[in-house]
Amino acid sequence: MKVALLSPFGYPIAEPFAGGTEAFLFRLATGLLKRGVEVVCYACEGSDIPGAEIRTCGVGRQAFVPSQHPGLLSIEQRMAFQAAEDAAMLAALTDAGSDPSIDILHNNSFSPIPFLCSSGTRIPLLHTLHLPPIKPDMVAAIRLCYKSGRFLRLVAGSQAQAHLWQTYHPLSHVIYYRFDTQALPPCGLTHEGTLAFAGRIDPQKGVEDAIAVAAAVGKRLDVYGGVQGPQTGYFQDRIKPLLQKHSNVIYHGLVSQAALLQGLKQAQALLFPIKWNEPFGYVAIEAMAMGTPVIMYDRGAAREMIVEGINGFIVPADKPEEMAAAVEHTAHIDRERCAAYTRAKFHISISVEQYLELFNKLVSSTSSENRSSTFLGRATPSSRGISDVSLHRFGE
After folding, report:
1. What superfamily in CATH does domain 182-345 come from?
2. Enclosing H/E stretch for 381
3. pTM for this structure?
4. Strand ranges across the sheet with 173-174
5. Interacting residues of 44 by C-beta distance below 8 A, sequence separation 6+
6. Where are the domains of the chain?
7. Tens digit of pLDDT for each residue in 319-361?
8. What Cα–Cα distance (Å) separates residue 326 from each residue in 166, 342, 351?
9. Domain 2-179+348-388 falls in which CATH fold?
10. Rounded to 10 degrees, what is the CA torsion of 316, 320, 322, 327?
């Protein structure tokens, strides 16, 4: 089987990962390659997945990432970014459609184009949603497809995320984000009594609350995460003054995966004061897999990742004082048990098997259909509903 992965084209699929979507694509591709699956990845220049073919469609590094917050762009600038992204997505779809060796196209982008083109490709098209329904053009495209009877094959990264999307289009599968836990270094049975925060420096990630918690409990806080172009002003205006004020807060920037895991391993707890409905949260399971418990606001997939007292604690949203109170309890977590539970539940081989099962079903069902029309250089199946594919959830 040959699988084509369509990325958002925003940041390279390479370490250090700019975000969870990039990490997901790298780890899924690597897992598929280990199973003998051929992988093509449509991604911007600079992407590097050993063993996979990268097709850039002429898109340079961060070509679709504005240097300032989108709200500060003029209408003309926003339209230019949108047009360039749409053109890249159409180029990728056309390229995949003209390649007879590709068996399935797996869309992981945030663009409306792949959703709107779903009924016009002969090769089966599967979509994994990496955002809650917050991007208007993406939401509108998915809702339009559903209302017009062009049913999409949609996968969510958590039950919580799937629930948010149900208003716009039914989802048939939930497959958790996972990674190769067998390749991890040994977990940390002891810690340095410090706290950690990891994630892009963005108001949605709650780094300000993490700094407040560290100040309240009098512990050092190690902050890991890059500042992406649109959030440069936020970092300069809000975070840099806090770093200057609190000598106990150390900002490390965007670091390699090995450095991040080592930092997480040494911490007493990871603070995850998320301010939005995080679809999953890679860094949380990475910390727990290293034996470090996580304290998370009760948002998004918190209750699907954390078993209180085993690998962390869940506290009321936007209550840094509750998060501070929970820090003391993390000292009593059995770190070896925390790591063992997380490594067993979130190993990438589980997700790879689930995606392969779905890929095979979609390829098989498409092969049995009458391919009588053409679009994007290939024949297309007749329109059909999502009921033609398996509707069971993957037991999670």
Report:
1. Glycogen Phosphorylase B; (3.40.50.2000)
2. strand 378-381
3. 0.89
4. 53-55, 38-42, 2-6, 104-107, 125-129, 153-156, 173-174
5. 7, 9, 10, 11, 12, 56, 59, 60, 61, 62, 63, 64
6. 2-179+348-388, 182-345
7. 999 999 999 999 999 999 999 999 999 999 999 999 999 999 9
8. 33, 20, 31
9. Rossmann fold (3.40.50)
10. 120
